[in-house]
Amino acid sequence: MDWLIFLGMAGAIALLLLPVGAQGALKKRLEGLRSHPRGRPSSAGQALEEPFLMRVVVPFVDCLARGAARFTPRGSLKRLKERLARAGNPMEPGRFLAVRVLSLGTAAAALLGLYLLLGTGGQSSGRFLCLALGASACACFLPDYFLSRLIRRRQKLLLTHLPDVLDLLCVSVEAGLGFDGAVQKVAEKFPAPTRDEFREYLKEVRLGRPRADALRALAARVGLAEVQSFAAAVIQAEELGVGMSKVLRVQSEQMRRRRKQMAEEKAMKTPIKMLFPLVLFIFPTMFIVLLGPALIRLLQVFRH
């Protein structure tokens, strides 16, 4: 008899607790039906609701990217991955190859349409063909040009932040932090791309990669001789048991001296760079202002 009373009470409690969740699920279901009175839209309807870029252009580029990556040699694909890593991985290697192919095809199609529209023939057709080939080659290498500019800009930012990074590492290590803890401070204090590179280093170390390999990977991603020197010094100090703070202090002083030398070099190049604007734009206007009235006066004298 007691177990029947126990089961009855348990069932009553379960009935009291269940409707709360059931009512919540039922309420959500009713709200979904109210928002879609004709029923749940089909997958085809959802696809048609997406913009044209997501429905057509992106799948076409992805398909072209897979084909371009399949027929690209491994060595070229590896070098392209390294360049994209130095640029901060703005896109996948396959998509970059697809963009290159699309730019080439777009330039060729535009020039062909212009050729058919103008209807030139004879000797002009040969010149137009050479022009089309040259424009197509330029369009093919245009993505590489923008990628190179992105790499240079990113490396310039990293090189600008590097002396301050070394100072912060040195101060943090002297204050008692480990090297990875000092790197964590760098990842917190500095903006991108310095933050992103050191966060990637910390991620690799936490996943179990040796510190030396992670530092070499950092230097390879950045592609700067100064970062390679810093990584080699830290690896050597760790292997030989030298104090890390002393090594970081020496690296910081060298980087500041290097930055000062680079600033002096740019300052010495400035007069040479200013020579061409002076000759082409400033000197002619000065001659016009100074000699113009005298020439007008001489013309009036010779006329009379």
Give the overall pLDDT as a whole number.
Answer: 81
**What's the β-strand tally?**
0
Low-confidence stretches: 18-22, 37-42
CATH topology of one domain: Receptor-associated Protein
Output the radius of gyration. Answer: 34 Å
- CA-CA gap between termini: 140 Å
- In terms of DSSP E residues, the strand content is under 5%
Fold and architecture overview:
The protein is mostly helical and 304 residues long. Among the domains are: 49-152; 156-263, Up-down Bundle (Receptor-associated Protein), CATH 1.20.81. It is 87% helix and 0% strand. The longest helix is centred in the C-terminal third of the chain and has 60 residues, at 244-303.
Structural key phrases:
single chain, 304 residues, mainly alpha, Receptor-associated Protein, 11 helices
Short structural description:
The chain is built from eleven helices and no strands. It is an all-alpha fold and about 300 residues long.
Write the layout of secondary structure elements.
Elements: H1 2-35, H2 43-49, H3 52-71, H4 74-86, H5 93-118, H6 123-174, H7 179-189, H8 194-206, H9 211-222, H10 225-240, H11 244-303
